[in-house]
Design brief:
Distance between the termini: 60 Å
Number of helices: 1
Number of domains: 1
Largest sheet: 5 strands, antiparallel
Helix content: 10-25%
Structural class: mainly beta
Shape: globular
Length: 160
């Protein structure tokens, strides 16, 4: 019995590539004013997330962020973000829920903690260097952080 083989002509590949290029070129929404900054999307408005650095504690598995709440807030349970990528790869971003303790926000990685598991994100390329990042699951009210994998750089926001 013969197994059918799929054959793609150069023309087919060119047409499919062209369709994706046209789809990416069609984005007409707001554009982030700064590269490598994550912005919450609220209709046609972009709200910058709270950017900073998480501080590693003596525990070495716990990271803290100053303040008990982020000034970047959204009522959306499945927030959408835009980012113009320069040095940060959007696919490297991870989303975590933060605990609020003693006037600061924190996350403990590993050790079976509830908030140490990355939440699901969907990343879509809109045009050259422009990406849409969205929570791919409904999030509860609270404090959250997007952070590039292996980095202490953070982009915080609150869902209310």
């Amino acid at each position: 019995m013969c197994t059918p083989r799929l054959r793609f002509s150069a023309f087919t590949i060119l047409v499919v590539s062209g369709v994706f290029a046209v789809m990416a070129a069609d984005y007409t929404g707001p554009r982030p004013p700064k590269p490598d900054m994550v912005y919450l999307v609220h209709a046609d408005n972009l709200i910058p997330t709270e950017a900073g650095e998480a501080q590693e504690t003596k525990n070495q598995n716990t990271y803290t962020i100053q303040g008990s709440s982020s000034p970047a807030r959204t009522p959306l349970a499945e927030p959408i973000f835009l980012m113009q990528s320069d040095r940060i790869t959007p696919e490297s971003l991870e989303l975590y829920k933060l605990d609020v303790k003693g006037g600061h926000r924190e996350i403990t990685m590993g050790g079976g903690r509830r908030n140490s598991k990355a939440l699901h994100l969907a990343v879509t390329r809109l045009s050259q260097g422009l990406y849409r990042i969205e929570a791919d699951e409904e999030l509860d009210n609270g404090e959250y952080v997007l952070s590039p994998m292996g980095s202490n750089r953070v982009f915080c926001f609150e869902i209310y």
